[in-house]
Amino acid sequence: MTMPKVGTTSSRVRAGLRHDSASVRLRSALAAGSDPDPEFVETLVERCAVEPVFHVRDMLTWALTRHPAALTVPRVVAELRSPSARARSQALHTLSKIGDRGVWPAITRSLLTDADDEVARTAWRTAALLVPDGEARELAEVLVSQLGRGGRETHLSLSRVLIALGEPVAPLLREAASDPDPGVRGHALATQQLWRDPDAGFAYAVEEAKRMVSLGPERQEALDADAQEAPGADGRGTPVAGEREAVGADGRGTPGAEAPGADGRGTPVAGGPEVSGAGRQEE
Questions:
Q1: CATH code linked to domain 1-130
Q2: C-beta separation of 27 from 63 below 8 A
């Protein structure tokens, strides 16, 4: 059972989380996660919504994962309804790190189609990690409806999530590859190309998709006549083992159970973190 800390210690940590110095906030978040206290939860959640420095936000999320889910999950889920895009995005990121699939009903269509690209991207990644096995097709339908939105970063994020979902996505991508909207069609074709040849990279997939779009739908159909489905990373039309897990909330497959250190790579640095630089949640 977690016992409350002596008042002065708890107050000092909570005050440190609001300090003007990013390095002080980072150390305070590390302290809150290293020696959990129920009194920290509210302040940690509040700071997630307003913290401007990426490495500090990630440490705040880590600190929340160190507290009992029974305390953190309801409070974090409540942030999904916040008018602040940063609060919604960081709450989704935190839920993906906690990994409680019981929060799935809270990952709503409105979050998956959020007007803010960062919120939507985080919702896609979180949904891909937490979706129940029987609801992957329904999730895929919502995600495919987002093809063509945003810029390159958003396109790549969505493509990665669609590929991670695997088999339910393939027929939906084939249909989208003939969409009359060239933006949707090009993104679908780029996703198929990345699925077929992940080693080639997204830039190549985009260029190949542009070439296909320029040919027109009829020529595309002729070229794709022998391709009944987009092959997965193992070349057999299915994702390789562990592929869904590879799409972490940060888009790089990094686990969330470790404390992010001052080097910003999710690995604690000897002696604890030092000064954190500015940054943002990356793909």
A1: 1.25.10.10
A2: no
Write the CA distances from 91 to 46, 55, 215, integer angstroms: 10, 15, 43
Q: Could you tell me if 59 and 31 are in contact, meaning their C-beta atoms sit under 8 angstroms apart?
A: no
pTM of the model: 0.72
- Give pLDDT tens digits for 231-276: 444 444 444 434 444 454 444 444 444 445 444 444 444 444 433 3
- As a whole number of angstroms, the distance between CA 147 and CA 177 comes to 10
Q: Within the chain, which residue ranges are assigned CATH 1.25.10.10?
A: 1-130
CB 165 within 8 A of CB 244: yes
Instruction: Fill in the amino acid letter for 114.
Output: D
Beta carbons within 10 angstroms of residue 172's beta carbon? 19
Write out the two tokens for 197: 């040849």
Radius of gyration of the chain (CA): 21
**What are the tens digits of pLDDT across the range 34-63?**
999 999 999 999 999 999 999 999 999 999
State the virtual CA torsion across 249, 54, 39, 256 in degrees, nearest 10: 30
